[in-house]
Amino acid sequence: MKSDSFRNKRNGFETMDGGMDGQGPGPKGKNPAGKIAGIVAAVVVLAVLTLNSTYEIKEQEQAVLITLGQAQAVSEPGLHFKIPFIQQVRKVNTTIQGFAIGYNSESDEVDEEESLMITSDFNFIDVDFYVEYRYSDPVKALYASRAPLDILRGISQSCIRTVIGSYPVDDVLTTGKNEIQASIKEMILKRLEEQDIGIQLVNITIQDSEPPTAEVMEAFKAVETAKQGKETALNNANKYRNEQLPSAQAKADGIIKDAEAKKTERINEATAQVARFNSMYQEYIKNPAVTRQRMFYEAMEDVLPDLKVVIESPNGNTQTIYPLESFTGTQEDEEDEEAEGQQAQPPASGQSPVQGSSVQDSSAAPQNGTDEIAED
């Protein structure tokens, strides 16, 4: 049997029993399925190890690498390696996120438990807020507290009610929103700094503020309309004032300049009159009688512009006629008056040379003492 088997193998044939001689399997009688299963298991283990040894961080993420309970932040984006089954990775989204207070942002329904508040003047009001935040420290955000978002929400609600309770209802509804938002943000930042939970407040805004009932809402709308009308009237008044002030200022400047010009003119005129008076006084000192007589004639010219002066001798004969224009008029006026004096006829003896009242001046006689001055 053994010889047949040997002969068959030598000739390239196998026996029906797979080359067995009845004493057990030969050296080449192993099962190939076990080899395949081992290879598959090795590939699976290698794949698992490969997948667990790498992780990827996106641009807007940060990771926390945990090695035997010790956490370490990884902030650089890209592909990173870790030790499988020894190191673990937890990722944190660092983009700006937000949540609503006082309403549901998905269904836009009002949450009265969060929105209903009381103001400093004991009025109820519904106020909705939106809080924006981001994770500033992923390690603290994961391990400093169990629920950092719940802590942030609780701090926000506490600060909101504290600030709203210190303002009157008019400020919450109208002009005080920006100041209220700034106060709430500052208070939340201080509280978060004390808690140090790895969350940073980006911004908090008032979405809406209104009275809790329709009747109160209408009343507040009427008040708001009145306030807007007041602001409009004030703006119009300020505009009119700004338009009129330059014009009034220009008129005032013109009046002041005219007054200064008149002042200068009066001063110059007074200075000239003083100089004229001083010059007349000097002439008066030299010849008082003639100067006084001339001044008298000039005064009479001002009082009676048509006055004619006739000087006659004591015997009643007219010697010379002096028209007053000869003292103040031009040369042509003097010549005309001279011609008229030559053509005039002497009056009869004992009569006045002109009709009407006569004025005598004892100081006016140039030669014989007294001349008559007649008014025509």
Q: Which blocks of ≥5 consecutive residues have pLDDT under 50?
A: 6-29, 324-331, 343-376
Choose one word for the global shape: elongated
**Beta-strand share of residues:** 15-25%
H and E order: HHEEEEEEHEEHHHHEHHEEHHEE
Full CATH superfamily name of the largest domain: Band 7 domain
Radius of gyration: 63 Å
Number of helices: 11
Distance between the termini: 196 Å
What CATH calls the topology of the largest domain is Tetrahydropterin Synthase, Chain A
What structural class is derived from the secondary structure elements? alpha+beta
Q: Care to count the β-strands? A: 13
Overall CATH architecture of the largest domain: 2-Layer Sandwich
Count the domains: 3
Major sheet, described briefly?
4 strands, antiparallel
Secondary structure layout plus pairing:
Elements: H1 2-10, H2 32-52, E1 54-57, E2 61-67, E3 70-74, E4 78-81, E5 87-93, E6 97-101, H3 112-115, E7 116-118, E8 124-135, H4 138-143, H5 148-164, H6 169-173, H7 177-195, E9 199-210, H8 214-286, H9 288-303, E10 308-312, E11 318-323, H10 325-328, H11 331-343, E12 358-361, E13 371-374
Antiparallel strand pairs: 1-4, 2-3, 2-5, 6-8, 7-8, 8-9, 10-11, 12-13
Helix pairs in contact: 5-7, 8-9
Structure description:
This protein is an alpha+beta fold. The protein has 3 domains: 97-212, Band 7 domain (Tetrahydropterin Synthase, Chain A, 2-Layer Sandwich), CATH 3.30.479.30; 221-286; 288-374, no CATH class. It is built from 11 helices and 13 strands. It has helices at residues 2-10, 32-52, 112-115, 138-143, 148-164, 169-173, 177-195, 214-286, 288-303, 325-328, 331-343; strands at 54-57, 61-67, 70-74, 78-81, 87-93, 97-101, 116-118, 124-135, 199-210, 308-312, 318-323, 358-361, 371-374. The strands form 5 sheets. Strands 6, 7, 8 and 9 form a 4-stranded antiparallel β-sheet that branches. A 3-stranded antiparallel β-sheet has the order 3-2-5, with no helix packed on it. β2 (61-67) and β3 form a beta hairpin. α8 packs across α9 (288-303). It is elongated.
